[in-house]
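Anyone else keep sequences and structure tokens together like this?

Example one:
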Amino acid sequence: MNKQKLSFLEIWNMSFGFLGIQFGMALTGGFMSRIFQTLGAEIDDIPILWVAAPLTGLIVQPIIGYMSDRTWSPRWGRRRPYFLIGAILSSITLLIMPHSPTLWIAAGFLWILDASINISMEPFRALVADKLPDSQRSYGFVMQTLIIGVGTWVASSLPWMVSQFGVSDAAASGVVPMSVKVAFAIGALVFLVSIFYTVFTTKEYPPEDMEAFEKEKAKKNRFVSDIVENIGNMPSTMKRLGVVQFFSWFAFFTMWSMANPALTEHVFQTPAPIEASFDMANIVQKEAFNVANTAFQKSSNLVGSSMGIYGLSSMVFALLLVLYTAKRRINRKFVHMVSLILGGLGFISMYYASPETLKYSFVLIGFAWGSILSMPYAMLSSSVDPKKMGVFMGIFNMFIVIPQIIAALGGINFVTGLIGEKAINAMLVAGLSLIIAGLCNFLITDKNAITYQTEEN
């Protein structure tokens, strides 16, 4: 099918729903560990509590990709039904999650939320490849990154923002502060509204051969065998990108799960107080706990706000790429390599950061994040069968979730322990992992994936 080039507004409309998806991801990435610590989690236990996120992605994304490839509705299209279902479930879970009374209920809600976000997110990746000609795909994925950057920046700063309007950061032992609850409620609303905007402003192409599509859909469901077959037939470029993805996502999972305990302790000098260390029956001791807990909650707001900077810098990175790729080709491999190495240096610099300079570390991390959200998908979409774009995007997610599962099941604790016991060492591990990811780009050799070739170029 010859696809027409889309205008800026059309690409913006089809990508806008990612704003809501990123609100959900940024709120969990920035504040889920804080919720776990508030509910009594020990620092060493935090990674395993995060295992829900990658496990649900491993299961849900290939299924949703496979199903959306086989879906067509004249009214709702192929990918949009999944946007809606995921948005509704995610919004409900975001609203309820910070009210969790116990640690394990909060962990359970993380399972539900991540599954719901994945229902919406995977079809969004496939939609870009569905609608855009190959020459515009870098542009399309970078546009998504631009919107994701906005979402990360705003959502990560929400608890700090609402606290500036007088919403309290203080709370009793084992209770999530009201500032976090309000922030999650705002995130739920943004998630729903932004997805609805994309659904009602974007049309999809019907299957190129409707008769063949209906025959294929009518066949006996061979989901497992089809997935296994497609995994076995992965293009070599996809496998090599998988190595880059492994180290990239090990690094970012380490950040999401460990940045709050590491930075509140090392940079802000306000670690989460352990209730068992205080005699809560003693008024003086109880007040000392409350003071320490409020200081932790306030510094957690500042950590979240600092993390939002990586969303802002990824947005600037994406904007520059949008302007450049609208008219010119880029070397995707080189851009990705340099961006990942800069991000790795950003993580390492946290060891020497102060509360005033921490934002500069996240600026560098934003370059890596902006590239991770665009360049691998642009390279992948130029090397797979367009008819199987959804299922291959879902399978590609394995290279995202497997490193996170390994990290959650002891990988972070083991590698960090080789350096030392301090929580900040997890950020050093993240930095080294991201630099390795950058260097692994030397494995990518497919010229069409590296720089899309057109007749006019």
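And example two:
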Amino acid sequence: MPGEPAPRPLRFGANYTPSRGWFHHWLDFDLDEVRADLDSISALGLDHVRVFPLWPVFQPNRTLIRPRAVEQLVALADAAAERGLDVNVDGLQGHLSSFDFLPAWTGTWHRRNLFTDPDVVAAQEEYLRTLAAALADRPNFLGMTVGNEVNQFSDGPHPDPDRITGEQAGRWLERMLAACGKGAPGRLHVHAEYDAAWYRDGHPFTPDQAARLGGATAVHSWVFNGTAQLHGRTGTATEHHAAYLVELSKAWAREAHRPVWLQEVGAPAPSIPPEHAAAFAEATVANALDCPDLWGVTWWCSHDVSRELADFPELEYGLGLLTNDRRVKPAGAAVARIAARWRGREHRPAVRSTALAVDVGGARAAPRRSVCAPGGAFFEAWASLTAQGVRPAVVLAELAEDPAHLSARGITQVLRVPEVIRTHAR
């Protein structure tokens, strides 16, 4: 197809959850333990890790970014390089596995909006720039992710959100990405939201921002969001949820072949019982790999959370590819097989020539984006088509009759939700 990029190798990696002390390991950093963890990840045949500094540990005061913590992050990246692993760094942690990690200078007596307060935003910029600059000369440094699902701080159901408008969210993202680029020019800098950006009406972080800001679109796929509850663990919608988000994101992209990174995907119990995690991983990744322009897959997560640590939601303890004593689990073996199967091969899936048009009430603000959520009319129509073997792409309703847009994406047929519903009803 004219303008189609050269095929690139797929990337397979894991979100690195340290086996000793979880992300609290930054408080008692042990490079030998990190090396052992990275050995176990590398042994799966993976090629990259996404790592998570804890923001309050690295920047405990607004004007103090701890040099020793930054040195430890660089040491982790160098240890990864010794094992053939590239590194992406999430900056603003932020939120991890139900816990919030915010510096004391943003809360209580010093409460300031994370996204709009001038002093807070300037400090965040300097923090992200500093981390990126520290790694800018490392060949295995992929780039920064602004933060892990930071959008959850901007809206409900967070119990104490820093509310902002969509315009303010967009300006904040642009400033954070620019700071990453200033620290490490030319690297793959991205931002990543949980699926409220795609599914929640009125949420200030939008699909438009997700698919147009940064060097790639990052999507996080979790089927405990209602998908598995509605469709069961082996339902088409469940096993294709990651692929759905990949394709949904492309509807908003300006570039026909903008890369999409499946940056988080996991098998959460009890939606996916542990004995079925490997089968779910096989199906989910295979379906995602049927999406053109996929950059890669990064599984959540590398190692289980130790049962010695308290107060995690039950599902968080068993999401690893490896146990927290570094034994390979069935899901880990499944992902390792997939990575080995694709090593050295070009990723060139067939074009998705049939698209389903999505109408969210306007592309930029997407005021009716809940139609895209599990149970929504668009979500269910897409799943129905997929169950019939159609392989649907997604196109914005505004562009459904734009010949140049459709041609650039290889789309030759556009279906509408009502006709899919009518056909399915018959």
